[in-house]
Amino acid sequence: MSMEVNHPAPLRLLELAAHSLLSNEASVLLVLEQLTVNLFPPLLTAAFAKGHRKALKALVQAWPFPFLRLGSLIVQWPNQDSLQAVVDGLEAFSAHRACPRKSELRMLDFTLDSEQVHSKGASEALAKFPFWLPSTVKAEMPQAVARPKPTENMKKGPKQPWEAVEIHIDLFLRGPFKLDKFLSSLLTKVEQSHGALHLCCRKLHIEEMPFHSLLGILKTLKLDFIQELEVFDWFDWFWALSDPNLSATQLGRIFNLRSLKLIYYNWAFSSRGERPSSYFLSQLTRLGHLQKLHLSYSYLSGNLHYVLSCLWVPLHSLEICYCRLLDTDITYLSQSPHTTCLKKLDLSGNNLSYMIPRPLGTLLREVSGTLQHLDLNHCRLKDAHLSALLPALCRCSHLSSLSLSDNPISSACLLSLLEHTTGLMELKQVLYPIPVDCCMYLHGLSWGPVNKDKLCQLQAEIQKQLQAMQRADMQWSPPLPLLMQLVQFE
């Protein structure tokens, strides 16, 4: 039965009826079986808003639809008690219950979509639930409570008692860690359900998490559901995963990964048999759906080919930041299959000054057919380097954003870059560095006081040229966070 309401007036009447019914919470429990399905969504919304725990628990256990999405309710009313009541309602979903459950629920979704994350009240909600990592991908169904399109796992008709219920939640796990009451209760419910409840985490962020604490959580998750994995300080974590006794949590079992982000890892590519890297590389070969790879603050010098050669499918996004890349790494990348599909390339934090015009220029030419986002921040690039890159850069006809922050480039060179790139009609955003004639640079980074007058003059000249070239859709800007701290140069 469709839950869409076409006219606002009936919806208001349903809300009034829901609040009236909840004024006596005990009455809800008595008449629940007699309620029409149209009353369930406004009744659950009202119960969540007011924290009616008994009513919430009963509504979850009798939910007449296959899908229940709570993201917008969590943002609007970040109430731990209401969430706990929803979890308590999961008691009905047990493989060992003697009688069939009444609920038609097959998916309980706690995640937030991108619109909800940026909405008013989201920061308060996330502050109260620090274990949550908001989804960055807009959900297909932004309604608080909605019925999903039929899928193979959600066929019409009554369910059998043994069908599992999926619980969707994104997790941000950071040590020192103490389980939140809600999360602890949820994990316990899933573990005790003996397969009747499946905990599905699409995006998982792990940071300085004690491995033994993490292990218990990983054993509860459906690892093949994880699509985005972010791990900070991951050396000890992958060392522990190399233990064959922990095969249930091996990276290779997270085989549906689309995005992998690894920060701070001391690679060991020598022939001494260091297990963490060899183990990790062997698991990479099993990630047949990986599209995005982000490696930062890792010593990869001359060994990028070990990582990329393990991937069977060309990447769409590659970020290799502060990894001390060598010219051999860039040469291998320019010759790899990934250049045919790359839409985003981030080489920030690597010294590329001695790789121009080759092999960096060669790489840009190879990716020019697909590249949309290019980040070359803090790469020691000077005027001569940027000028030499211009021919290859201007071939990137699909480029929509370019970032060159923290490179010692002059104002004149930036104006020349503007003149040459206005023909790239899809290029809309350019983040340019504070020019060397406006501040000092030390070890490739902008340093010291900034002449704000000269910087403003440059910005005015840029705007003048953009108007003259009829590119008002093109936005050029310096690093805004840094500008807030600028001091007038005298």
TrEMBL record:
One Gene Ontology cellular component annotation held by this UniProt entry: cytoplasm
Any single biological process term in GO: negative regulation of cell differentiation
UniProt keyword terms in alphabetical order: Leucine-rich repeat, Repeat
GO MF entries: ubiquitin-like ligase-substrate adaptor activity
Gene3D superfamilies: Ribonuclease Inhibitor (3.80.10.10)
Stored InterPro entries: Leu-rich_rpt, LRR_dom_sf, LRRC14/PRAME, PRAME
Tagged with keyword Transcription: no
Family from the record: Belongs to the PRAME family. LRRC14 subfamily.
Protein name: Leucine-rich repeat-containing protein 14
Naturally occurring in which organism (per UniProt): Macaca mulatta
Name of encoding gene: LOC698692
